[in-house]
Amino acid sequence: MTEHTSEKKTAKVGQLVEGNKEPSSNIGREGLFAYFSNSWLEFKKVVWPKREDAVKMTMFVIVFVAVLSIFIYAADTAISWLFFDVLLRREG
């Protein structure tokens, strides 16, 4: 059974190597045009959220960033107070 599996893997690897016969110097305008064409096709597949959902998610992100900012400010202030006033006994 393992011999059969390894034969399949070897065959697949051989197919991948053989299938990639296009020279890399051929990536000129056709490659760029194909890239933008494929990007546009993928862009059309995107399912955009409804406006209500987008507003809810945006508000959640704004509130989360505000809460996180307050937490970081409080933690920074506490660590600064602990380091300078308690450990170094420096006033001011």
TrEMBL record:
It is found in: Cell membrane; Membrane. GO terms for cellular component: plasma membrane. One of its GO terms (biological process) is intracellular protein transmembrane transport. Residues 1-23 are annotated as: Disordered. GO terms for molecular function: protein transmembrane transporter activity. Essential subunit of the Sec protein translocation channel SecYEG. Clamps together the 2 halves of SecY. May contact the channel plug during translocation. Belongs to the SecE/SEC61-gamma family. This is Protein translocase subunit SecE. It comes from Neisseria cinerea ATCC 14685. The lineage of its organism: Bacteria, Pseudomonadati, Pseudomonadota, Betaproteobacteria, Neisseriales. The gene is secE.
